[in-house]
Structures are given as C-alpha cells and as structure tokens.
C-alpha cells in the first residue's frame, strides 16, 4: 500500500491524481491532502478520501478547516502554513509525494520530499526550473525515486531505458518535446495584441490550472519544459528540440543514433502520466479511454514560431545563460502572468517583462536555496517595477 501526499490536492493535477488513487484502494491511499486557501474544496476531498492530515497553506484558514472537518465528521490532523507543508512532504504519514502546487510556492515542499527520500512524482515544473541541480542533489542524498508527471517528461521517461540513463551511453541523439501550440497557434502578433485571459485559458486539448494555461498560450510552458528536460535527463541544450504537434497525441519522443525514434502516445488526459508515475515500474488502469488511432485526425507537425511566441526563445536564452537565469525567468514570468490574468498586462507584454528582468539580473551561480530564494524575490521585485513602468 502506497501512502500518497497530494500537495495541491484542490488543483487540476491534484484532482486527476485523486481520481486515479480512488480507482485502486488496495494499492494507494491519499494520506495527506493540501490546498492553498480553498477550504471548502479541501474539506470535500477529505470527506471522500479520509486522509490522516489536511494542510491549508494560508494560516488564516486553519481554524475554519478544523471546524468544517469536525462538522463533516472527518477526524484527521489539521495544520497550516509553509512549515506545515514542508513537514507534510517529509513526514511519516506518506512514502510518496505528488508535487502539484503551482509555481515557486511548491519549491520548499518539493525539496523537503526529495531530502526525505520520498518517491517524488513531480508535476511542479517551476521547482526544477528554479533549482534543478539542488533538487537532483537532494534526491541523490535522500535516495528516493523521481518520476516526472509532466506529460512530455513522463513520455521521455517511458521512451528511455531505465528512465534516467546516461544519455550518451544509451545512444540517445535527441529529446523531442512536443507542443500543442496552445490556443493561439498560427496567429500573428497583431492578432494577439488584444487577447483576453479567458481566451488564453481555453486550451484546445487540455484542461489545466490558469497559470499553466497562460504559459501554454505564450509557449513559456514549453520553455520551462525544455529546462526541466535538461535537468531531469542530463541533456545538453543542443540535444533538446521542440516540435509543434497540435493533436497532443504524441506526448514526446526520443531519437537514437541509429535513427530510431521512440514515441509515447495516448489521449491528452493527465491521468495516464499520473497512473504511470504512481504505479511505476508496474502499470495500473487510469480511467483514460483507449486511443482510437483510426478515428484521429491526421497527425501534424510544424516548427514553433519563435518570433511570435518569444517566451520560448527567452527560455532557451536563460538556459544558455545558465546559473540562476532560469529561476529569474520563471519568477518574472509568474509575476507577468498574474498581471495578465488580472487584466493589467497585455498578452504580448508578458515576454517583454521577462526579457527586461533577465537583462536587469544577469545570471549568477546557484549556490544554495537561501540565495536562490533571494534571487526569486529580486526577480519578482524587478518584474513589478517593469510592470509599473509599462502600465
Ligand atoms: P492549479 O492552479 O489547478 O492547482 C494548483 C494547486 O496548488 C491548488 O491545489 C492550490 O491550492 C495550490 N496552491 C496554489 N498556490 C499555493 C501556495 N502559495 N501554497 C500552497 N499551495 C498553493 O494548477 P495545476 O494545473 O494543477 O498545476 C499544478 C502544477 O503542475 C504546476 O506546476 C503545473 O505547471 C504542473 N502541471 C500541470 C499540468 C496540468 O495538466 N494541469 C500538466 C503538467 C504540469
Ligand atoms: Mg507538459
């Protein structure tokens, strides 16, 4: 029986994870559930899954959570605040952690799970983008397994022998990340000048949280994923390619030196990657309908439009710059996306904000977590300054 902590249980990945867990009560149990501040949604999940511990990140909501759980007849521990998230991720109540908090807010709990040797199912890509080498070090020290949940990386993991091999020795030539192209694929810059948050969040193939939906629309999501792949698989930047594949049926591919290309296919439903990661190296049923290839539209592929979707080019630039540039990129992007979602920043200006912050804070070596968090704060402040100038 695996006891699973679902960090970010009220989110899109959290919901899909709990759906898979509920299908296999003899194999998995959701022993820890966490949310940011949506107490009502968290209580509902606790009623259904009966965890040992419920954590709300915002301490202002702890009493309300305890009261509502008691009213609902759920007897579990209750805690709140960032330290409680860290304790939950590293404590005795779980052996597996699904890191599904969005943004840099997920960094410390993800690292704590890694240090504690938990089996880490990583959805929170921002944490590996920010702190790649430190996270991998923590995993190595803790001795747990790291299994990617991001569909592209989960696909690569499935197409690589042993998941994370020495790429060169395995005869790998290239990792090919597929991108749907998002809701604005094929549009010109002029056509993107006035797009709204709701249009940006209407992804053609996936239903996701709003931050990652905007990232998919700008292609920053693919940029973050290139950096994620670089760290997860030890792949040099020249060995990572992006191809746009609008149907989102091929989730990514590995090209070998003999010309073989292995792909992982499936319907665009995160429960496949989640079920794979939960059960690995076994397989379990996920609830995803079988892929009907004959009924699929022809599969298309095209090169990404880096001139229109500048965020992808900026992510490559940050990865090339090295050090903490990816952390600066990701922090500036979080601030810009929030402003776009709040209606105070134009869609195309997200890239301008990120570019300005990267220029203001040249890459420094990543030393440790406190320095990294300090840079995260500096990048956010710089982004807010740029926003004030722009608005
Ligand atoms: P979401 O917005 O639907 O859910 C985010 C979760 O994080 C919620 O449970 C929320 O309560 C919690 N949270 C938010 N801010 C927090 C904070 N400050 N402290 C503690 N908890 C906080 O997001 P999502 O779409 O589920 O994405 C989660 C992560 O998974 C992101 O990093 C995203 O990039 C990654 N991911 C998502 C998908 C997808 O299909 N949704 C696919 C691949 C990767
Ligand atoms: Mg992805």
Automatic annotation (TrEMBL):
- Binding of NADPH: at which residues? 10-13, 124, 126, 209
Q: Which GO terms describe its biological process?
A: isopentenyl diphosphate biosynthetic process, methylerythritol 4-phosphate pathway involved in terpenoid biosynthetic process
Tagged with keyword Nucleus? no
1-deoxy-D-xylulose 5-phosphate reductoisomerase N-terminal domain span: 4-132
Question: Which InterPro entries does the record match to this protein?
Answer: DXP_reductoisomerase, DXP_reductoisomerase_C, DXP_reductoisomerase_N, DXPR_C, DXPR_C_sf, NAD(P)-bd_dom_sf
Q: Which residues form the 1-deoxy-D-xylulose 5-phosphate reductoisomerase C-terminal domain?
A: 146-233
What's the Enzyme Commission number for this chain?
Answer: 1.1.1.267
The segment(s) forming the DXP reductoisomerase C-terminal domain are 265-381
Name of the protein? 1-deoxy-D-xylulose 5-phosphate reductoisomerase
Residues the record lists as binding 1-deoxy-D-xylulose 5-phosphate: 125, 151-152, 180, 203, 216, 221-222, 225
Q: Give the pathway.
A: Isoprenoid biosynthesis; isopentenyl diphosphate biosynthesis via DXP pathway; isopentenyl diphosphate from 1-deoxy-D-xylulose 5-phosphate: step 1/6
Gene from which the chain derives: dxr
Q: What does this protein do?
A: Catalyzes the NADPH-dependent rearrangement and reduction of 1-deoxy-D-xylulose-5-phosphate (DXP) to 2-C-methyl-D-erythritol 4-phosphate (MEP).
Family matches, as PANTHER family: 1-DEOXY-D-XYLULOSE 5-PHOSPHATE REDUCTOISOMERASE, 1-DEOXY-D-XYLULOSE 5-PHOSPHATE REDUCTOISOMERASE, CHLOROPLASTIC
Highest taxon of the lineage: Bacteria
The organism encoding this protein is Rhodanobacter lindaniclasticus
